[in-house]
């Protein structure tokens, strides 16, 4: 029986995509082989990768001014690749610190010799807020402004793109937990990147959209597989790429397109999230710590009024087919991730369970 999987990642994937992949697993495109077995240099797979890129461009509106790269190492690999491609040691870069993932990126930039200037730090709120527009200034000479658009662990999302604050400085955004969950103005960014394992496939692959004028700036010691220009020139195939991830990405992209595109995804995702937030906000038994304007539509943390009931809540949820609701170890409580593939029925089942648990335990 399929469960309702609220994991923050690796996350629930669309059932039609999984069924399609299962049906093709032993014989892909009448090759007599699995997609896991075919050559990445063969015409079938190169066409598969080209189709995935073309579909990303259609969905996002990314023009030929941007390279689309499929890279190993997930988003964390890009924490190193970004300073390696955009700075020399001693250069300045600006950062918004809104939670654990932006903090990890800051730490890695510092390890790469970057003067990482934190222009806004939400630590005082325990990372339950985002900085107000106009409340921070990017230092003169900064090579880029970096932020995490959606903090998976804390359930915090930036409610705006800081274009005015960047003042011509390239904006670099980690969009891992909200990738293709809603429309995005690609032209506002220098780099958009994220791991696939939330909305776009299995863990291990990063998908980066990089403005082409930012290519060719890599330090001499950057590994070739993380040198954006080298990888762009090789169509992400300098080495053997993550072929199965690219194949599944293509199926998921077509599923998004067939489901109405990013505008339809946003409408569905916002409706799912609002229903769960309403259930939390109208209850004295559950609470969400994030300020309302900064709430994520993808990752919704919540706590019980009596933390001693957490174990019973999770056990009952598992019995009801509601899995992976335990909050991150650093935050505690619960967390429901409502990525693109989470169904309305799944959200309804969670809300019904929460109401029944409150009725019997409050």
TrEMBL record:
Its cofactor is pyridoxal 5'-phosphate. Its main location: cytoplasm. This is Phosphoserine aminotransferase. Its EC number is 2.6.1.52. Residues 4-350 form the Aminotransferase class V domain. Pyridoxal 5'-phosphate binds at residues 75-76, 101, 152, 174, 197, 239-240. Catalyzes the reversible conversion of 3-phosphohydroxypyruvate to phosphoserine and of 3-hydroxy-2-oxo-4-phosphonooxybutanoate to phosphohydroxythreonine. The keyword Nuclease does not apply. It is an enzyme of class 2 (transferase). L-glutamate binds at residue 41. GO terms for cellular component: cytoplasm. It catalyses: 4-(phosphooxy)-L-threonine + 2-oxoglutarate = (R)-3-hydroxy-2-oxo-4-phosphooxybutanoate + L-glutamate; O-phospho-L-serine + 2-oxoglutarate = 3-phosphooxypyruvate + L-glutamate. One of its GO terms (biological process) is L-serine biosynthetic process. Homodimer. GO terms for molecular function: O-phospho-L-serine:2-oxoglutarate aminotransferase activity; pyridoxal phosphate binding. The keyword Acetylation does not apply. It is found in: Cytoplasm. Binds 1 pyridoxal phosphate per subunit. The modification N6-(pyridoxal phosphate)lysine is found at residue 198. Keywords: Amino-acid biosynthesis, Aminotransferase, Cytoplasm, Pyridoxal phosphate, Pyridoxine biosynthesis, Serine biosynthesis, Transferase.
């Amino acid at each position: 029986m399929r469960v309702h999987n609220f994991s923050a990642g690796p996350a629930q994937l669309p059932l039609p995509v999984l069924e399609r992949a299962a049906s093709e697993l032993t014989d892909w495109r009448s090759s007599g082989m699995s997609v896991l077995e075919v050559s990445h240099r063969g015409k079938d797979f190169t066409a598969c990768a080209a189709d995935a890129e073309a579909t990303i461009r259609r969905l996002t509106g990314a023009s030929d001014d941007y390279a689309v790269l499929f890279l190993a190492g997930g988003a964390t690999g890009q924490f190193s690749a970004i300073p390696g491609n955009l700075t020399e040691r001693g250069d300045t870069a600006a950062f918004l610190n809104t939670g654990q993932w932006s903090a990890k990126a800051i730490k890695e930039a510092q390890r790469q010799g970057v003067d990482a200037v934190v222009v806004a730090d939400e630590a005082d709120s325990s990372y339950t807020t985002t900085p107000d527009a106009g409340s921070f200034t990017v230092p003169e000479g900064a090579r880029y402004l970096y932020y995490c658009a959606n903090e998976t662990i804390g359930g915090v999302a930036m409610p705006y793109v800081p274009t005015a604050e960047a003042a011509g400085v390239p904006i670099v955004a980690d969009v891992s937990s909200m990738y293709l969950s809603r429309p995005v103005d690609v032209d506002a960014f220098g780099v958009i990147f994220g791991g696939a394992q939330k909305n776009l496939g299995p863990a291990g692959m990063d998908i980066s959209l990089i403005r082409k004028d930012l290519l060719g700036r890599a330090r001499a010691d950057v590994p070739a597989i993380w040198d954006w220009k080298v990888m762009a020139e090789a169509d992400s195939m300098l080495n053997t790429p993550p072929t199965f991830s690219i194949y599944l990405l293509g199926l998921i992209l077509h599923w998004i397109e067939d489901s109405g595109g990013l505008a339809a995804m946003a409408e569905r995702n916002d409706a799912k999230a609002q229903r769960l937030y309403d259930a939390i906000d109208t209850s004295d038994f559950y609470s969400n710590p994030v300020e309302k304007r900064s709430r994520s539509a993808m990752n919704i943390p919540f706590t019980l009024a009596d933390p001693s009931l957490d174990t019973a809540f999770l056990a009952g949820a598992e019995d009801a087919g509601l899995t992976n609701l335990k909050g991150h170890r650093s935050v505690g409580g619960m967390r429901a991730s409502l990525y693109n593939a989470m169904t309305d029925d799944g959200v309804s089942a969670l809300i019904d369970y929460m109401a029944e648990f409150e009725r019997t335990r409050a």
